[in-house]
Each structure stands twice: as structure tokens, then as C-alpha cells.
Amino acid sequence: MEVLYIVIPCYNEEDMLPITAKALILKLDTLIADRRISPMSKVMFVDDGSQDRTWELIERFHRSCDLFTGIKLSRNRGHQNALLAGLMTAKDYADIIISMDADLQDDINAIDGFLDKREEGCEIVYGVRSSRETDTGFKRFTAESYYKLLEAMGVEITYNHADYRLMSKRAVEALAEFKEVNLFLRGIVPMVGFKSDIVTYERAARQAGESKYPLKKMLSFAVEGITSLSVKPIRFITGLGVTIFFVAIIMLVYFLIIHGMGKTVHGWTSTLMSVWALGGLQLLAIGVIGEYIGKIYLETKERPKFLIDINLEEEYDEFEKE
Ligand code: UDP
Ligand code: MG
């Protein structure tokens, strides 16, 4: 039986934590009783520098029950970093890790489905929302158009998947090889690869407390997703530069004709010609520089060039040992 750790980033979640803890303990107890996971399994809360009693509660849960543990970050670093901190800590103790939010918007009964897929040999299982009825129309619209935009930008992402997923220790170790600071986990995890699958679930409404993602944070998260995973915006500038340069050539002909007809004020032709030609050239030049910066950007991330799924040599060694 594998040891399961459920990692939960928490930021000012004092209203929600007692409800979450209760629900999760019931779930874990059942899974352990059914012998689906090891009795060493735990819920790991990550306190992301909360200002309220969140950490106090986590410590209290830990004292009262072995199934709870926690880590406390030195200060608020945001959801994605808190989640990563949890994953990287939990991988030393767990065989499989499930990440979810503190607000129980992700249906914890999907965990059974996750474990089924794990038993089929999956290293990563993505939780996918089947409906967003409980979200406000605005949030639904922005979120769904955002997934579409990301796709258009060439980012490989699972539609309607947030950060509710199961990862094996192996997958988390592979994730650790992605050293980037600009973290957009749901875009990076698919890069890890390995056998993966999805499990769909209904997304519920937040039961207590309020969303920690106001519009401002949501927007910066959205920009982060695009700029940390795609160099297409740079390509766009290059394309624009080329287009404008071609337009400039057409305009040149037009200006010269008007000039030849003598219908212009002195200096008009040369001024406009340089405005168009230079504008196009400048955009093109910026685009070219951008291409190189894009390359440097990707280099600095030091992402792994490959990850090995199966190495028959190693399997052979293990076989010999037995
Ligand atoms: N969260 C965090 N640090 C932050 C903001 C949020 O750890 O700076 C946690 C929060 O406690 C919750 C999860 O991230 O467990 C998702 O936040 P929330 O439910 O508010 O986002 P929403 O579901 O509204 O997108
Ligand atoms: Mg939420």
C-alpha cells in the first residue's frame, strides 16, 4: 500500500480549516480502513504566511491527530509557491501526493477515482471540473476564455483543470527538475509527461471564507501563465513588424505617386515615408531581439531536456538483485 499525502496550501483560511480537516480525516480513515492507502498517510497543510489563526489551527490538528501535519512558510509567497513547497516537502515521506485547495471546492470523493487511475499505473492524474455552475458567470467566462487563450499561445494545458491532481513521488521528483522561478504549475506539470489520465468531478462553491484570488491576483496569474510558458507574444511583435514593413513599401509607392502628381506640401513625402519605413523596421528589430531574449529566457529556466520513463538496463539490474 502506498503512502498518500494530501497537500493543501492555506492562506488566511481559519474559517475553512476546521471543516476541511473534518472532511479529510473521514476520507483518509475510510481509505485506510479499505486498505487503499497506507496508515502512514497524512494531510499536509502549508501555511502560506497567514495573518490569522491558520497556523495555530494546523498545530492543534497535528497535536490531536497523527493524520495531520503541516509546514509554515516564512511569509506569504502565493498559492503556487506554497503548493510547490508542500509537494517538495511531502515527496520525501510519500509515495503519492494529491494537491488540493483548502476550500473544498474540489470534490474529495474524486480521490477514489485518482487512486483507481494510480492503480492502473498512472504517474499523474488530473482532476477536471465537469461544470462550473457554482462559479459566478464572470469567473466562468474569464477562466474559460483564458484556457482558450493559453491554447492559442501553444501552451499545453488540461482544460478546466486547476491544481487538484495526484502525482506520484516519481512525477514530483521530475517536477523538481524544473527550476523556474516563475511558477505556473498547471502548465509545467504536463511537461513532466509519464502515463497520465484525468478524472472529472463537480466543482462546488466555497463553503466558508472568501476567495483569496481577487481580480488583480487573477490577472497577474493569467499574465504569468502566458509569459512563463510561451514566447508567442514576441513572435507576434516580429510578425507585426514584418507586416508594417510591407505596408510601408506599398505606402512608399502611394506617396511617390502623390508626390509625382505634385499634390503635396514640401517635405510631406519624405516625412511620411520615414515614419512608415522606420516604424516597421523598428518593430521588426525589436521582434528579432525579442526572439533572442526569448531563447535566453528559456535557457535560464534550466528545464530538463528529457525525463526517462523506462530504462530497460535498470529494470534488468533490479531483476538480478531479486
Ligand atoms: N492560497 C495560498 N496563498 C495565497 C492565496 C491563496 O496558499 O496567497 C490558497 C488558499 O488558501 C486556497 C487556495 O490557495 O487553499 C486557492 O485559493 P482560493 O480558493 O481563494 O482561490 P479560488 O478558488 O477563488 O480561485
Ligand atoms: Mg477556491
3D structure, described in words:
The protein is α/β, with parallel strands linked by helices and 322 residues long. It folds into 2 domains: 4-212 and 305-321, Spore Coat Polysaccharide Biosynthesis Protein SpsA, Chain A (Alpha-Beta Complex); 232-301. Helices cover 52% and strands 14% of the residues. Helix 9 packs antiparallel against helix 10. Residues 101, 103, 105, 206, 211 line the site of magnesium ion.
Count of alpha/pi helices: 11
Can you tell me the residue ranges where pLDDT is under 50 for at least 5 consecutive residues? none
Profile the largest sheet. 7 strands, mixed
| DSSP, total strands | 7
CATH-assigned homologous superfamily of the largest domain: Spore Coat Polysaccharide Biosynthesis Protein SpsA, Chain A
Tell me the domain tally: 2
Sum this structure up briefly.
By secondary structure, the chain is of the alpha/beta class. The protein contains 11 helices and 7 strands.
Quickly list its features.
322 residues; seven-stranded mixed sheet; 11 helices; binds uridine-5'-diphosphate
Topology, element by element:
Elements: E1 4-10, H1 17-33, E2 42-47, H2 54-64, E3 68-72, H3 79-90, E4 96-99, H4 110-119, E5 124-131, H5 137-152, E6 161-168, H6 169-175, H7 185-192, E7 196-202, H8 215-229, H9 232-260, H10 268-300, H11 312-321
Parallel strand pairs: 1-2, 1-4, 2-3, 5-7
Antiparallel strand pairs: 4-6, 5-6
Helix pairs in contact: 9-10
The structure holds uridine-5'-diphosphate and magnesium ion.
